[in-house]
Task: inverse folding
């Protein structure tokens, strides 16, 4: 749409009245109205009037610099949007753009295959990691004691520690030997996984006070990937030692994944995504189910007037609700906003267990992984602040040349 078409369009679509009000003093319009009133059918007169009015109003607009500038600015704003620009292209060009979109869809499907092969690689390397994770569990539970070579670790401050240690050894060696004899030597690493839950905010928010004694029995968390040829998924296995709360030795959570573009919106594909999850039934021992609480209510009989007390179990917050998740699929009904948020949070936690907690457990136990994450975020903010400072310095230099730049326009 060119500029003149744009003006005519707005005149025809109801802008005529508003523009008339801007030029009420022009008597030529009224004269044109009267000149068509005699000896001509009413429809023809009206059509002639409209044509004459449109032409004269267009002339008026073209002679008014303020109106002209306002309309040009509006036209510029419309023409600068991508969709409006595409609409102005010739049909032949649009046809070629559609061909490019088809190519893009094919690229998305190739990318999906790439991620499927990545999943196969994850499965392959998971088998290589597992012996190390099995040994990790043995050290944590105390089933195996690490050798001196396995226990040796060189810290970043090793030299400083060594010098300080040499000086102290000459003075307090006897006290150290006595303290070592009295120092407790618990089995394995007590409360290893529970400490990780306590250290990581994403997990600690889920844990209630009554969950803590149970999590202290957690001995290991494993990730298992789907078998070759099976739909893409992974399973989190939570291994517990015998306890007073439930009889399951392992609690599982299965996350189902998809690596294929959505048919309705193929361009939104950005890699595999979790689409659903399944939990497991927990075989709670009598009176030990922390996912429910018992409430007592009094009921009065309408006829006899007698009162009785009944007990009812209702759900309550607990980490172990993690194993009874919402379902994303099923009857096809859409979830409400709160349910969608809950499900998205569940997917995020499952991904965090798989990608961070299980592979780097010891660093979340010591807090080093958390410090690294915090430092990385602070570094990003620092770089952004420094960049903003540089930009402000450039603005000062360029203020006289380009005042719009320093005002953010």
Result:
């Amino acid at each position: 749409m060119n500029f003149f078409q744009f003006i005519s369009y707005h005149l025809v679509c109801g802008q005529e009245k508003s523009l008339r009000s801007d030029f009420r003093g022009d008597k030529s319009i009224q004269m044109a109205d009267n000149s068509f009133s005699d000896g001509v059918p009413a429809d023809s007169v009206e059509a002639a009037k409209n044509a004459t009015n449109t032409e004269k109003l267009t002339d008026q607009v073209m002679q008014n610099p303020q109106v002209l500038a306002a309309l040009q600015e509006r036209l510029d704003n419309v023409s600068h949007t991508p969709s409006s620009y595409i609409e102005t292209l010739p049909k032949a060009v649009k046809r070629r753009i559609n061909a490019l979109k088809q190519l893009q869809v094919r690229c998305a499907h190739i990318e999906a295959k790439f991620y499927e092969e990545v999943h196969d690689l994850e499965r392959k390397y998971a088998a290589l990691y597992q012996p190390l994770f099995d040994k990790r569990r043995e050290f944590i539970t105390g089933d195996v004691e690490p050798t001196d070579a396995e226990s040796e670790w060189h810290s970043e401050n090793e030299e400083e520690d060594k010098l300080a240690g040499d000086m102290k050894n000459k003075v307090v060696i006897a006290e150290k030997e006595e303290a070592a004899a009295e120092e407790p030597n618990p089995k394995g690493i007590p409360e290893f996984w529970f400490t990780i839950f306590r250290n990581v905010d994403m997990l600690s928010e889920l844990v209630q006070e009554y969950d803590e004694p149970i999590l202290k029995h957690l001995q290991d968390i494993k990730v298992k990937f789907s078998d070759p040829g099976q739909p893409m998924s992974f399973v989190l296995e939570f291994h517990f030692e015998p306890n007073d709360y439930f009889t399951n030795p392992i609690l599982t959570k299965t996350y189902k994944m998809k690596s294929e573009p959505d048919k309705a919106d193929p361009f939104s594909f950005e890699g595999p995504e979790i689409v659903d999850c399944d939990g497991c039934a927990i075989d709670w021992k009598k009176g030990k189910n922390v996912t429910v609480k018992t409430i007592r209510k009094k009921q009065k009989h309408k006829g006899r007037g007698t009162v009785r007390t009944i007990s009812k179990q209702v759900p309550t917050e607990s980490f172990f609700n993690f194993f009874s998740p919402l379902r994303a699929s099923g009857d096809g009904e859409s979830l409400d906003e709160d349910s969608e948020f809950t499900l998205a949070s569940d997917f995020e936690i499952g991904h965090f267990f798989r990608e961070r907690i299980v592979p780097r457990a010891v660093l979340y136990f010591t807090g080093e992984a958390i410090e690294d994450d915090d430092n990385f975020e602070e570094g990003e903010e620092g770089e952004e602040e420094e960049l903003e400072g540089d930009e402000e310095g450039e603005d000062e230099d360029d203020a006289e040349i380009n005042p719009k730049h320093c005002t953010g326009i």
